[in-house]
Amino acid sequence: MGSQDEDVRAMAPHIRVLGDPRTDPWQESHAMTATTGATPSAQPERPGRSDGVCSEFTVFTKIKPGHADALRADLAALASGSDDVKGRAALRQIGTLHDARHVIFDNDTRFMFASVFDGSWDTYIDDFAKTVIGSHFDTIFSHSEGFPGISDPGVKEWFVAHQAPAKSFVSSYPDLTVQQIWKDHRVDEAFEEVLDTPEFRAALDNPANAELLATPAFQKLLEEAAA
Amino acid sequence: MNTAASSSEPGVRVEIDDVQSGALRPRPVPYEGKFVFLRVDDRHAGRALLRRLLPLTASGLPSADRSQDAWVAVAFTYQGLRALGVPQESLDSFPRAFREGMAARAELIGDVGESAPAHWETPFGTGEVHIALSALSSEAAQLDKELERARVAYEDTPGVQVIWQQDVHQLPTGRTTFGFRDGISQPNIEGVGLLGSNPQEAPIKAGEFLLGYPDETGSPPPMPSPDVLGRNGTYAAVRKIHTNVAAWRRYLRANTASAEEEALLAAKMVGRWPSGAPLALAPEHDDPELAADPHRVNNFLYRENDDRGFRCPAGAHIRRINPRDSTIIGDARMHRLIRRGTTYGPPLPEGVLEDDGADRGLVGVFLGAHLERQFEFIEAEWVNDGNFIGHPGEKDPVAGHHDGTGSATIPEKPVRRRLQNLPGFVVTRGGEYCFLPGLRALRWIAELED
Questions:
Q1: Could you give the angle at which helices A81-94 and A68-78 cross, rounded to 10 degrees?
Q2: Which residues of chain A does B380 touch, with a Cβ-Cβ cutoff of 8 Å?
Q3: Whether pLDDT at A12 is above 50
Q4: What are the pLDDT digits (tens) for B238-259?
Q5: Residue B222: its chain A contacts at CB < 8 A?
Q6: How many CB atoms lie within 10 A of CB A25?
Q7: In Å, how far is A2's CA from the nearest CA of chain B?
Q8: HSE (CB half, 13 Å, CA atoms) of A202?
């Protein structure tokens, strides 16, 4: 799944507007792509590129004059101590965020937030605002000019207006959602633990298990166990 | 994910007498009903009809005397509001999903393949459905009386055409065509005065279901202008769903070794037993006594006793569409709906495994203040995908649109069972997004001038 060819993906079908005279800013974005091979989100008209199951989201804002140090301090606080613990717990709760970064640049005048999500950016944005991450966003973006607040009904439009869609976006694991990665990690840990037990060795040598061992499915497992 | 209300703002008083009964009243048991679609060819005639319908349109809570209780509801598609001459400025102020209509959103909500709008029953998705009337009662005689009054109203109005009708009624079994009791679970809505069906559910903000009140985000839902048009209104996604009962029974038969296993597998896919007893409370056998007790039949959560789904699989129909406090991505309270299913067509006689060619299924009405965040989100993310429960690509085993390659995971010890090659058991025959205004708004539309 997930063609790597940008042109093909850019031509993926859009949910188009029927009898709709109004044009919202994001409707004009030709960079919008329908996610290939994954379920379309309930808001497919948002800008941003997708590769397989995940999408990118990058916003650029202007830092309010004199706020750069306060922003730096807030970002440092979020990355430390109990705020960090709460933030990581919220990431578990959200369960769709692959990674995120905050960058201050242009001599403390501009700010970038960049992230990679499963599905479209706002499939879960309303829910997201209710977690501790929502209040983090409130704190961080309060240093940006014009931010209306995370619980403002117009906040999505504000983000979209400040979004710059990627010209190219590629994932090394286009088929894996955050949930699947966590599951795979748990399975791998459990599998490695089984391999370390002498009982498993003995079971492999037990003729009673020969039939199971010979199945193609089990052979695949043994291939992974060999190295 | 939390079951407690995020902020409690006591004292929200819903203007229940201005809210159409079709929006909030639970479906009676048993019930008789009818849906009628009308096309408005002349806006003056359309408004004249609305003036005749106004006195028939019920509002408020159920009457104390159920045998006298029947209610007619009046709803409009976007094309219908346009045909009635609602000013363009107002039309433009409706949310995008409503303006586009269900057919335009088909791909997004999973109506593809056999369920695609190209195969829908006429007049669904043609733009000709303008007014949707529904009438529901616990009594056939009472329903007939209401319907007769409504019929006189529209048949005496040239310039308005009846273009579709569908009778619905409860089957003698009291169950759906698949053989399961439904209509059990209803949200607990703050300030409305109707009891929710789950005593463990904290009241949900009225704004999740009605325009003009704060919702779970603390802000009121987007409302069309002027205010009088939006206030006390809501949106209804109306869908006619054909059920392939023979295919359902054959799939169960083919994947089990005994009648007992068959019943359990069906329950694992639905999340309840035929009586309505939930697997969360009755994991091994049906429990009709529990099911008959209104205080117990819906009194449960998932996390404490069944977080991993060994009783009710995370992918089961009822757990997907109402995950309660389950461990999922996101916040279940942001995606609640009022669901009202009514059955049409004859039942497939018990034990029959071959299709008899009869059309049977349900007319579903899904009500809420946010079409996108509620109905569309649930269809796209919860019914037709499984990412939110950690099973990307897995659909609702009963209501998902499978094409013969679907899978469903049933947690079991020592290893989970995975159903493969699920066929589609339901086909969308058509659907419309409707706006169900309050009574003052209905009068406002009826009295438009030009």
A1: 70
A2: 39-42
A3: no
A4: 999 999 999 999 999 999 999 9
A5: 153
A6: 11
A7: 14
A8: 3
